[in-house]
Amino acid sequence: MTAPVRIAVTGAAGQICYSMLFRIAAGGMFGPNQPVALQLLEITPAMGVLNAVKMELDDCAFPLLAETICTDDPKTAFSNIDVALFVGAKPRGPGMERSDLLVDNGKIFSSLGKVMNEVANPDVKVCVVGNPANTNAYILKANAPNLNPRNITALTRLDHNRAISQLAEKVGAGVPDIQKMVIWGNHSTTQVPDITHCNVGGKSAAGMVDQAWARDEFIPTVAKRGAAVIDARGSSSAASAGNAVVDHMASWINGTPEGDWVSMSVPSDGSYGIQEGLIYSYPVVCKNGDYEIVQGLAVDDFIAGKMKESEAELREEADAVAAMT
Ligand code: NAD
Ligand code: LMR
Predict the structure, then answer these.
(1) How many angstroms does the Cα of residue 129 sit away from the middle of ligand 1?
(2) Final residue of a domain: which of 154, 185, 202?
(3) Ligand 1: which of 72, 75, 87 to mutate, most ligand atoms within 8 Å of CB?
(4) What's the CA-to-centroid distance between 195 and ligand 1, angstroms?
(5) Are 181 and 163 spatial neighbours (Cβ–Cβ below 8 Å)?
(6) What is the pLDDT of residues 12-70, one digit of tens each?
(7) What pLDDT was estimated at residue 211?
(8) What mean pLDDT, rounded, does the chain reach?
């Protein structure tokens, strides 16, 4: 029998996990032939709710779910794992920016980063979801020097999926017709959704829409979509975020289709002139359980300027958390 992939998930009693865990246990992340074991971490007051989540996972009788561990001990959660999904963090409310969460949530990532450093497998693949996701990943990376830094990533797949959906609706195409979407930068309102390289059914998307739409409607709609969901729902996106985490990991593990890529926030290696070490969203091609930043894309002055603004915001966030890194 195939050994299960062991997945630590923090914040496992929260909103995102209430949809995401069931997708993972059903095989959505690692495929229909790969058993999974869930190592679920919560703070002590949430253990009752977490146990209810376990009861519901049990009640689904998922054939691929080999084991579910519920714990409030990070060492237990992070031992023997292949993957760690860092969801546990405060969400923002109406009128807040994600960076307003930095002081409270940053502490979670410095303390859990230290535990990861002590007990986790150095090659563990990490996806940070809790906001502000890029800088929380930056904090985690700084506190876990024993881990392979390339494998510390943050989620911008939700933005990537939002961008595909907006473009598909605008041009009257199906989602599968859209290829080569890019999200550059931070998972914040400075992010840069970029259709320059997109194909729609093999044709250039840039030739199918007005530049004014791309700049003045598409970019702000995607960049402010999180706030729009909060205004409409009263709390932040949950099912679509969980879906994006499943997509992020599935692409990383199983690879991206020929002729396409996905957006992932990864430690910058200096590509496109972005400061090395910042966790920055790039287009990446995934293959054999690894990723490569897509190189050599033409970037016009408008997009380049916005990419720099998003980098500047990440530098400011990094400065603000210098004491934690
Ligand atoms: P939630 O409040 O419903 O759940 C968060 C859970 O984390 C809670 O159950 C809480 O007890 C737990 N938690 C807090 N501190 C913890 C710790 N130290 N260890 C383990 N667990 C801890 O929130 P949610 O809606 O699930 O959102 C979680 C985070 O994800 C928020 O920061 C939100 O802003 C962010 N988010 C990011 C994206 C993205 O695209 N990157 C999308 C949606 C939401
Ligand atoms: C999102 O993009 O939906 C999340 O980051 C939640 C938020 O605060 O917007």
Answers:
(1) 8
(2) 154
(3) 87
(4) 30
(5) yes
(6) 999 999 999 999 999 999 999 999 999 999 999 999 999 999 999 999 999 999 999 99
(7) 95
(8) 97
Mean pLDDT within 302-321: 97
Pocket of ligand 2 (CB under 6 A): 91-92, 98, 131, 158, 226-227, 229-230, 236-237, 241
User: At 113, which amino acid appears?
Assistant: G
Q: What is the CATH number of the domain that holds 279?
A: 3.90.110.10
Q: How far is CA 129 from the centre of its chain?
A: 5
| Residue 161 · residue 169 · CB < 8 Å | no
CATH number of the domain enclosing 14 = 3.40.50.720
Q: Does residue 95 come out as left (phi exceeding 0), alpha (psi in the -120 to 50 range) or beta?
A: left
> Which amino acid appears at position 183 of this protein?
I
Last residue of a domain, one of 104, 126, 154: 154
Q: Which atom of ligand 2 is nearest to the CA of 240?
A: 3
Q: What is the pTM of this model?
A: 0.98
Query: Tokens 């195409």, residue?
Result: 173
Give the model confidence (pLDDT) of 92-143 as tens digits.
888 898 989 998 999 999 999 999 999 999 999 999 999 999 999 999 999 9
Residue 29 lies in a domain: yes
What sign has the CA pseudo-torsion 210, 211, 215, 219? positive
Q: Give the dihedral of Cα atoms 21, 233, 279, 135; nearest 10 deg.
A: -100
Q: Which positions are catalytic?
A: 187
Tell me how far apart the alpha carbons of residues 115 and 76 are, in angstroms, rounded to a whole number: 10
Residue 325 lies in a domain: no
- Name all residues whose Cβ lies below 6 A of ligand 1: 10-11, 13-16, 41-43, 46, 87-92, 108, 129-131, 133, 155, 158, 187, 236-238, 241
* Residue pointed to by tokens 């996106």: 237
Is residue 1 over pLDDT 80? no
The C-alpha torsion from 131 through 136 and 137 to 143, rounded to 10°, is: -160
- Rounded to the nearest whole angstrom, what is the distance from the C-alpha of residue 242 to the centroid of ligand 2? 12
Closest ligand to Cα 230? 2
Q: Which domain holds residue 145?
A: 5-154
